[in-house]
Amino acid sequence: MNHPVTPELQAATWAAVGKPSPHESAQLHVLGQATYTDDIAELQGTLHAALGLSQKPHARITAMDLSAVRGSQGVVAVYTAQDIPGTNDCGPIIHDDPILTAELVQYVGQPIFIVVADTHDHARRAARLAQVSYEELPAIMTPQAAKAAQSYVLPPMQLTRGNYQAAFETAPHVVKGQLYVGGQEQFYLEGQISYAIPKEAQGMLVLCSTQHPSEMQHVVAHALGVHSHNITVECRRMGGGFGGKESQSALWAAAASIAAAKLKRPVKLRADRDDDMLVTGKRHCFYYEYEVGYDDDGKILAAKVDMTTRAGYSADLSGPVATRAVCHFDNTYYLSDVDIRAACGKTNTQSNTAFRGFGGPQGAIAIEYVIDEIARHLQRDALDIRLLNFYGRNDVEGRNVTPYGQTIVDNVIHELVAELEVSSDYRTRRRAIDAYNEASPILKKGLAFTPLKFGIAFNVTHLNQAGALVHVYVDGSVLVNHGGTEMGQGINTKVMQVVAHELGLDLERVRATATDTSKVANTSATAASTGADLNGKAAQDAARQIRERLADYAVKLYGGEAACVRFFDNHIHVNGHVVPFAELVQKAYLARVQLWSDGFYATPGLSWDAKTMTGHPFSYYAYGAAVAEVVVDTLTGEWKLLRADALYDAGESLNPAIDLGQVEGAFIQGMGWLTTEQLWWNAAGKLMTHAPSTYKIPGISDCPEDFRVKLFQNRNVEDSIHRSKAVGEPPLLLPFSVFFAIRDAISSVGHHAVQPPLNAPATSEEILKAVMAVQAAGVAA
Ligand code: MTE
Ligand code: LUZ
Ligand code: MOS
């Protein structure tokens, strides 16, 4: 045993990582014993707040009478913008996001006042009694209207490479068109909530359902006009975040804290589902205009896309979202000559924000739509057009540099797609479906195979950092705290596995605590799929330092060399001695060895020039592909997903059970986005789909009976945490296959000679319209 412990040797003898361990809270979830913010026992004297919301999409407030609100049963206080002690802003990047608006309202649902009452119900009832007079202004509701009016929250962005114009003019074939892809409500099961508890002096403890405790701390400090060290934000877990609690938990944290600071009493603000949907931003819908030139084989020679998003009334995270869309338009394809534009349309709607994929899915779906059109025009299988346009293999020169200048060194899309092509039996099923459709006049089947590539890292470079704190207690038990937040994705399980692995312990010996700004400072949001990557590395750094101190101490006691001390099976193996971990820890404590440590990680090698939109924004890429088979009823537009096969590259997965769950969840969530989930605003500018009664997320019965999800055997070429790859967001692109399978089924109505004009979401109504358009074109031809 007296040889140095390399990471390989450690992995060979001890593997707390790579195991399909259940989610650390799985039992608590199932038993209903997992504590969410609203489950925390309320302190005596706790009050409840509700927000008074604007009823107009764009208007000046000419008069406001809140006397009925003040006089309503149980009401303790009402606050408007001028009552805010500090800065009236909760915008994450640009400061254009008032907590409470004063003169100008910019969307239906914008908060105007806070009412505080003895109960949640009393506060909500009182909020409705406001008398507000408005002078209405013209409202802009859609990205198309924003584009026409040149109404943007930020200057438009552009990325070019090569000579798009020349390549387009000489291309043998061109395709031009427009596409609209709708937005999506995050629909976390636990809504937005904050519980603010005043502490002595200017202190405030905020228990908040948030992906970004540090940002909540800053916003609350600014709103109260105090320094950050007075504010502590804590989050044990969220009942889902999906990006919706990256920046937009701030309004709720700030409003609860303002009321709590004013009243010097604990105040809870829990959004009702309808209010949550009316007030908070969603996934950005995108409107695209595209022009692509290609050759007789279907190889893309020139690609131009002009994307306009519905940013809403303020910037929020729309800039980084649009940047990610620009950097994902290429998806898995080498595009030599491009002109990629994105503009964030300022509209009189909720301020749209992060949602799983963060613009990546919106960028990539456009090129997939184009490829689908190219294939149909050339009467070729779309998979063949995709294969032809893939980035080159890693050992092939050229064809491996993205439009933004990052060289791809980890491309596995060829191997991954080849594996899925065989395991899904794609070619055989394609022929079977053609035969089925020939014989079936009403029910039509469709099949599609779509690939994905997703860049991993925050595209804002400085956010790629994380910290952790590991404590080893004298009894040998271990506590880890890190800057990441648990939203169901399993970050705590993965970080616990990393720490257990480093110290050679069973997972049961490690516990993770709530995320807490007083433990790890200046954290980034748990977002961009980097949570486990960043915090796993930081926790590993902390655990390693403790391990090294313990190894040095063990050598003092038992002799040998520190580099040869091994930690596994809850024991320390040193110079022929086998000592229980807890025993060595006990001795180390008495010898005054530091048994806790901090850890830090910053992703190396990243760069980004926002002006030219070039650099090396991503640490590595994750890959995947899916095949979907659907059947569409061409009389009603109803459809069903019959079978889905998905293959995802999670590198050396830290936890295959959790990762498979993430892939399945993202697949179904993305399918909802592209099919049934429709956001609809009425002529008065009010979002009418603000509850599950009108907004249809997928249910268990929408999952395919035949669902074959697998992880692709791979190893990250980057030195990521145990060579794993991120899994949170990228699989949201897998259900592109469902959308294009539906389009394929519709296309069969016209014997694949007509391009079905299908926008997303492909609701039954949208499907029926496309079927009728294909039929009409067939009659005309
Ligand atoms: N999974 C669950 N169960 N709940 C969530 O809210 N959010 C997704 C994804 N998977 C989410 C989820 C989003 S938007 C991101 S960015 C990642 O998880 C964040 O977690 P990670 O970086 O730790 O993987
Ligand atoms: N960039 C990114 C970001 O790629 N993903 C994110 O979630 C994000 N959030 C804030 C700023 N930049
Ligand atoms: Mo995820 S959209 O990056 O929170």
Explain what this protein looks like in three dimensions.
The chain has 781 residues and is an alpha+beta fold. It folds into 3 domains: 47-138 and 186-279, Aldehyde oxidase/xanthine dehydrogenase, molybdopterin binding domain (Aldehyde Oxidoreductase, domain 4), CATH 3.30.365.10; 286-459 and 610-779, Aldehyde Oxidoreductase, domain 4 (2-Layer Sandwich), CATH 3.30.365; 465-602, Aldehyde oxidase/xanthine dehydrogenase, molybdopterin binding domain (Aldehyde Oxidoreductase, domain 4, 2-Layer Sandwich), CATH 3.30.365. Helices cover 30% and strands 24% of the residues. Strands 3-5-1-12-9-10-11-20 form an 8-stranded mixed β-sheet, sandwiched between helices. The chain has a 5-stranded mixed β-sheet with strand order 7-15-14-13-8. A hairpin with a 5-residue loop joins strand 13 and strand 14 (300-312). The radius of gyration is 27 Å and the shape is globular. It starts with 6 loop residues before the first helix and ends with a helix. Ligand MTE binds at residues 240-243, 356, 484, 487-489, 491, 526-532, 662, 665, 726, 728-729. InterPro entries: Ald_Oxase/Xan_DH_a/b, Ald_Oxase/Xan_DH_a/b_sf, Ald_Oxase/xanthine_DH-like, AldOxase/xan_DH_MoCoBD1, AldOxase/xan_DH_MoCoBD2, AldOxase/xan_DH_Mopterin-bd_sf, Xanthine_DH_Mopterin-bd_su. Its cofactor is Mo-molybdopterin; Mo-molybdopterin cytosine dinucleotide; FAD; [2Fe-2S] cluster. GO terms for molecular function: 2 iron, 2 sulfur cluster binding; iron ion binding; molybdenum ion binding; xanthine dehydrogenase activity. Belongs to the xanthine dehydrogenase family. This is Xanthine dehydrogenase molybdopterin binding subunit.
